[in-house]
Design the sequence.
């Protein structure tokens, strides 16, 4: 058996299959997706008066008391959607405990008096772009947000309750609240209540 | 732990078992060459490539074809990574990859490992992602399935006494058919499903947004869905984005997550059925799948239990334990789905992640480590999991044969010294590589510079890296800084050895078995379909495959657990 007898099929098959799977496949899929599902194919973007304000799937940084704050983020300087990243800290890392301690104190200082703080609110997500909060982590922020906006706590709490996504068939998924969508609703609620 | 979490795990295991037969039937048609009119489409390609599709290769010829195809693929990918700056579709103007990183990455994708020492969205052009990495996502997967086909043929051949030698199929034909008629059509369907669920598919690299608080946010985009579909189906696992399937664009919700997990297991589960069908008794296939699922349930239960309890050190600082250990987890997945995914991705040689394994609780981290260390034979990588499990099956019938004092046989073939030696070579290569490389990295300064964590967890990070590389998994305890000359080289050696030191003995076994006469099952044969066999096989995997690693697991996760209980931090 000559070497060329083995290398020729290897080379020809590689080129042919590369053209098919590496060029024809993704480009055809892109064309098709852009035609039949343009909204999702382009990143589920949210536009406000023509301007892109974010993606419904990607978390963004909220730091003011007027908004529900998301989880801490390890992506860049926080929610850098061009550079996803996690903390990769071990459960026994001193750096993890120090960071969580600081966040717990900050949350306590904002007026939260429950005995414990929901875990998602003081831990970084896997992507650094987690768009969601657990319902508990949203509810705990209701008094602060309502005070900062001069809204009734009951009204804001009802808004959170309406915003909860429930698991499919009660099994697939976790109860969650999309923070960006919730905060947009919140802005609308404030806008309709302007004196 | 919640009822809902266990229900999800039960649902997943049931769905995996349910997929085996339909997927196995499809695979059997490809295995058997029953592709009907589709064969006409292949003909032109075979002519240009100089392939005679009727020719049956001996095992050495098959192995040479595997090596040649992988070598050419490696050179092609390496060139693209190095030259991406000069190639089209590079809107961000990324520079070529440095040589060490490109070497590591090319080996990584050719061996179906997809270990990533780079961040996708910050390093690679669309061109490199598509025609570089994605092509190997298809071809390395097809290679694994082809080798599994070859081994199945070894068992299934029924040579007549006057036949000179039996072949084990034609690698070129296998790879072509698997790519054209399984991986590609399935990926097309999955791509559309993923886009519908929110995964982007565009040639735009990024879009700028102004957030509600007025800050600027650059959102990376790309042809994510097409890469995602094959990344899961082919158990490749190389993410489009740095954080892989934890990225909301690479896995928008619980439904896309369930589909991803099922597609990781689909082909691996199907191959067990194909095997049973090929050897004329589908119960043989079900027995293999059952042993795999027993081991899977053991692993996922440990992982879920350990991670759902939360981190006691954080609980002592006022953090609620109700949600479990949420560091490095996404809210939309929670602990149950994250634990399930972590077990799935390391049982198979996928390596995609939705939660950061580095931040798992110490005992939870044992499951991914052990899954990889036994060689990913629990469903396993496409093809690789099946042929890996067959090695253990040979050892199991050998052990059973020793116990009852007769020549072992399996699905109608006598298992003799040559097969057992070859199987033992492959089974011993993995721990030698994993533990040898880990030991080296744990004593030299260049190795010790890698881990992010101090204390026992730092050792776990090194152990995980080499377990992952040698098992061709590709997931990581991500704290390890792997993009150094030291780790790029050693991990590449591990990935290469872990792939080909198994493939070559497997093909040699296939060749040896193919020439053996069929021995019908007799009254004295050890039955390889019942509960006794399933238990024996699972035990052999744990004892032969797993026990070797016990000391290393005690030094890493074990010591860290002791520290955790004592409240010690590092």
Sequence:
């Amino acid at each position: 058996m000559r070497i060329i007898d083995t290398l020729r099929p290897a080379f020809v098959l590689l080129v042919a299959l590369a053209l098919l799977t590496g060029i024809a496949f993704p480009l055809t899929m892109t064309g098709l997706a852009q035609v039949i599902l343009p909204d999702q194919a382009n990143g589920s973007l949210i536009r406000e008066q023509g301007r892109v304000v974010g993606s419904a799937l990607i978390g963004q940084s909220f730091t003011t008391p007027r908004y529900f704050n998301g989880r801490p983020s390890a992506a860049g300087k926080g929610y850098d959607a061009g550079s996803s990243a996690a903390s990769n800290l071990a459960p026994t890392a001193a750096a993890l405990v120090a960071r969580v301690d600081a966040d717990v104190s900050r949350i306590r200082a904002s007026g939260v008096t429950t005995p414990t703080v929901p875990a998602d609110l003081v831990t970084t997500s896997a992507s650094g772009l987690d768009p969601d909060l657990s319902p508990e982590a949203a509810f705990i922020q209701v008094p602060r947000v309502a005070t900062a906006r001069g809204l009734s706590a009951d009204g804001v709490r009802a808004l959170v309750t309406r915003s909860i996504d429930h698991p499919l068939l009660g099994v697939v998924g976790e109860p969650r609240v999309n923070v960006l969508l919730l905060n947009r609703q919140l802005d609308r609620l404030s806008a309709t209540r302007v004196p | 732990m919640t009822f809902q979490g266990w229900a999800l795990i039960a649902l997943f295991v049931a769905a995996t078992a349910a997929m085996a037969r339909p997927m196995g039937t499809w695979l059997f048609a490809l295995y058997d060459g029953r592709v009907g009119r589709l064969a006409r489409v292949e003909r032109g390609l075979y002519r240009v490539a100089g392939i005679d599709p009727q020719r049956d290769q001996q095992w050495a010829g098959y192995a040479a074809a595997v090596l040649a195809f992988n070598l050419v693929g490696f050179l092609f990918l390496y060139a693209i990574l190095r030259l991406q700056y000069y190639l089209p579709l590079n809107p961000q103007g990324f520079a070529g990859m440095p040589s060490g990183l490109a070497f590591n990455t090319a080996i990584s994708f050719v061996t179906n490992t997809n270990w990533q020492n780079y961040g996708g969205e910050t390093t690679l052009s669309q061109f490199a992602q598509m025609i570089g990495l994605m092509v190997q996502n298809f071809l390395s997967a097809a290679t694994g399935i082809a080798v599994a086909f070859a081994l199945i043929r070894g068992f299934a051949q029924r040579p007549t006494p006057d036949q000179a030698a039996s072949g084990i199929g034609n690698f070129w034909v296998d790879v072509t058919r698997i790519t054209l008629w399984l991986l590609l059509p399935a990926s097309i369907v999955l791509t559309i499903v993923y886009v519908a669920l929110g995964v982007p598919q565009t040639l735009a690299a990024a879009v700028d947004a102004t957030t509600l608080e007025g800050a600027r946010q650059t959102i990376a985009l790309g042809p994510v869905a097409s890469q995602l579909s094959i990344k899961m189906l082919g158990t490749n696992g190389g993410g489009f984005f740095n954080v892989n399937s934890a990225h909301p664009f690479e896995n928008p919700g619980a439904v896309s997550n369930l589909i991803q997990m099922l597609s990781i297991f689909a082909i691996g589960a199907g191959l067990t059925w194909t095997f049973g069908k090929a050897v004329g008794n589908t119960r043989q296939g079900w027995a293999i799948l059952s042993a795999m699922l027993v081991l899977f349930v053991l692993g996922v239960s440990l992982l879920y239990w350990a991670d759902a309890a939360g981190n006691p050190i954080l609980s002592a600082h006022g953090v609620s334990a109700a949600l479990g250990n949420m560091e490095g987890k996404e809210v939309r997945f929670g602990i149950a789905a994250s634990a399930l995914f972590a077990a799935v991705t390391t049982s198979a040689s996928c390596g995609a992640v939705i939660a950061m394994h580095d931040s798992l609780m110490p005992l939870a981290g044992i499951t991914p480590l052990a899954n990889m260390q036994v060689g990913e034979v629990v469903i396993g990588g496409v093809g690789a999991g099946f042929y890996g499990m067959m090695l253990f099956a040979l050892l199991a019938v050998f052990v059973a044969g020793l116990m009852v004092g007769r020549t072992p046989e399996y699905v109608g073939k006598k298992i003799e010294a040559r097969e057992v030696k070859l199987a033992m070579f492959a089974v011993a290569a993995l721990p030698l590589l994993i533990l040898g490389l880990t030991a080296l990295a744990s004593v030299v300064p260049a190795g010790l510079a890698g881990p992010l964590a101090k204390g026992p967890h730092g050792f776990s990070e090194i152990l995980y890296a080499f377990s992952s590389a040698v098992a061709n998994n590709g997931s990581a305890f991500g704290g390890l800084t792997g993009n150094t000359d030291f780790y790029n080289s050693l991990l590449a050696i591990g990935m290469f050895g872990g792939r080909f030191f198994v493939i070559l003995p497997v093909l040699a076994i296939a060749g040896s078995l193919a020439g053996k006469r069929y021995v019908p099952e007799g009254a004295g044969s050890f039955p390889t379909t019942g509960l006794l066999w399933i238990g024996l096989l699972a035990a052999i995997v744990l004892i032969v495959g797993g026990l070797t690693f016990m000391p290393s697991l005690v030094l890493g996760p074990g010591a860290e657990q002791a520290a955790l209980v004592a409240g010690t931090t590092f």
